[in-house]
Amino acid sequence: MEASLRPKDPHGPYKVYGVDISYFTGKLQAYMQYKNIPHEVVDGYDLGKVFFHTGIKKMPAVETADGQWLFDTTPTIQWFETIYPDTPITPRSNALAFVSLLLEDYGDEWLWRPAMWWRWMPPISRRALGTKIMGGAMGAPALWWYFAQRQSREWLWGDGMSKTNSDNVRDMYFEELAFLEAMFVKQPFLLGSHPSAADFGYFASMFRHFGNDPEPAEIMRAQAPHTYAWLARLWSTKATDLGANQTWVFPKGKHWTPLLDRIANDYLPYLRDNAIALRDGKSRFDYLGKNHTFYRSKTTNYRVWCLEILQRRYQALNLRDRKRVDALFAPVGGISKILTAKQISAGMDKMFDVPKASLKGTHIRLSEPRGWRLGAQPRN
Length: 380
Ligand SMILES: N[C@@H](CCC(=O)N[C@@H](CS)C(=O)NCC(=O)O)C(=O)O
Hints:
8% strand
């Protein structure tokens, strides 16, 4: 159906609760802008309000005009795709749709650690972002320092990074720039003429961390100008500008090999080991991958769920599509073993089945709390 003939969206306009330096808020905003979805961004660390309505302390969260809530960018975007199906961000071929989902997930989760490194390790970024997040914190100069310490302890030193591999975590950024730059010299978006979920997954770290924070932003401008241009392109393009005629391109060429290798031999094995750790009741595990090693990584339920979804989607492919995906990863050793291994359940399907009615009224607390307290652990 033509967009102009479609009935008005009964759930819109939307309110997006997020922050202007947040990894995942930037990802969702770029998507909503691209699809021209009517929304207003409510900027601020109001994790208290989000928690009150959803039971989850994560941003971004979306409130619909009919009082429902969505959270977690991956299922949120997937739901929006059902309401705004024109110019989809999922490639037509199921094999490529799987690759797009895999790249989105890799962008969301694997690039988190280097994004944290570049925000919280270099002294200038650390000070700039610490001060910004603490609301300027004038008159309390130690607050930015306290915040920066806490973030680097939580997401880096306390999650698999040590003096031995700190430089490797730093260099993960350069690995991605090399890949993206080779890509964007050739085509406007990762999988062809239009943005796919893969672009939005990569956008999270690239826009709000690497392309924003002082040191990594300068590096991107100097070393990867096409990647810098892609950030602006994705941020400014609307699906209607590009038109409905989408040309998708299946990954091909040597410049893909290092990325495919990291996915097959680092990211997916990391997800597998994380799931095994959860199954075995371990709160930490040593991850020894081909290109990266993280001793004493934290076991994360959420990433067990990520692997479960990838396994389901891979196993739902028909033989022909599965063969295409397998052929893509064959030169780097394949991914089918991990994706067909016995699933370990994170038990999170229900939790992420969005949208949901507000939890308002189910709490004992009577008023909405505002803001976040120092005791909370913002993931930024
Ligand atoms: N996978 C989630 C991650 C969301 C997330 O971690 N958001 C961060 C900000 S970028 C946050 O709000 N963290 C708060 C917390 O973890 O307490 C998504 O895609 O939305």
